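Input chain follows. Return structure tokens only.
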Amino acid sequence: MLISEFFIMVNQPTLLSSQLFYENRVVQVTLNRVMLGFWKEIETRRKRSASFNCISKDADHHFLLVSEIVGARETEEEDQTNKDGGRKHNVLLYPYAFTVSYTERTKHHCWRCKDIIFHCLDEAQCQQWVQTINNQLSLLSIRPKRLLVYINPYSGKQRGKWIYEQRVAPLFSRASISTDVIVTESANHARDHLKTEVDLKQCDGVVCVGGDGMFSEVVHGLVSRTQSDSRVDQNQPNQDLVPCALRIGIIPAGSTDCICYSTTGTNDPVTSALHIIMGDSQPMDVCSVHHNNTFLRYSVSLLGYGFYGDVLTDSERKRWMGPSRYDFSGLKTFLTHQYYEGTVAFLPAKDNLGNPRDKIKCRTGCHICEQGANNGQLLSGDHVYKMAEENSDEETSGDGVWRVIRGKFLAINAACMSCACPRSPRGLSPYAHLADGTTDLILVRKASRLDFLRHLIRHTNKDDQFDMSFVEVHRVRRFSFAPKHSNVISEVDLSETSGKKICNQVCTAHPNNDTGHSNWNCDGEILPHADIQVSVHCQLIRLFARGVERGTTFDTYTWSVIEGSNLSWQA
């Protein structure tokens, strides 16, 4: 922490100052609009802390940012005894107490809610401290006061309701956040409810408790509702979309929770709840997927054709297996080793937005994302690109020069984020960015099983998965794909489980691709068409998150909350 930053915090006008009892000693406690500080009465020298982790300590001085306080409340007598390790003489000398709850960073990007208890001489003093602290917190305009919460009771290990009630709801209550909780009863319940029934003006954010599928439901409902209210036609591929005003919070309770991991660095429900309470805001890109002039879906993490599409298609036939179906279908798809012919066209990103192999990770306060937002975001125009009939490798449209690649592919993937998760800590594209208006397009050409296996294994270690002759990756703003053999998925396709057909696929060394086709995996859902057009919409939504932090020291995000009074504080 810089000395100048420390003095700015200390020299704020004092709101309240008292001598209180803390940890068996009398301390001078001072509150201003930025920090809560307390000093030993006996000692006069004050050492400055070299680092900052929510509450900073040295031998004489402790201080805590107001922006990192969850809430303050009067302490019950039973809690006083438990917290103070049974020191009842504290209660006799200082019979009244109040508790300040705050966030503390721990290992692996996890946050925890900690309590600190101060004892007072009289009840009026205790109430004054609680009221003054909570009044300052209420002035933080970035913090939500009312939340709409959707709980998927069936996601992951079916512990979503328990996670919310036992680990999240008590924190919201401590932060004086009111909630309207809806337990979903069927697929797309949250999406349809957001699109038609909710008065969005009555809440400050939407929280989903579940996995990536639940988050996708909320995104579709909120984005579609925003476009409908703004009279924007989602069926137009080149249409600029209106950003959503409400932020979305994710309480991870699914099997993978890729989006939560990529935006906070962990899949911990308490950490996510604290990000929501703090009012963090992380912009995020969204891809719109169209077939001709028909809107299909939005994507926020992975669009996968070939390998990942086949894994999802096969796993949908085996839902009775539970989460293990993904491992089984992944092995079977790898052994089948199917490749697909098609044509990919894309509009490369320019404007110095880096490249997928530049080793610049997306972190809190990412300058690449800031630059992407300032560069005009989604490029729009009246000219719609059409696939060329000639064997050229470039085409020109109203948006610029498109590159065209034809070939045989084992996989075609588009990642708007790293897609990191505990099983793949670096993700599908380790240096993809959350909010730069681009997606990383990964083309995996036909190769041997051994080479493809090496490529897959590199997703789980520190080796560069793109450093292979049959793999190429491009940072793009738009792309389209046209398979050699078009197809439409039906319910009959997903229900076919002929053992003979499966055995023939696995045992065939060189699959016949004359009639072969794959399906697009769009954030865990199968698209009905393989011929698609994809556009990236820069910072279309915002999450209750701040991106993966660089460390546990005092960071630029926290400092912006302190000094950015127009952003964080009501006048």
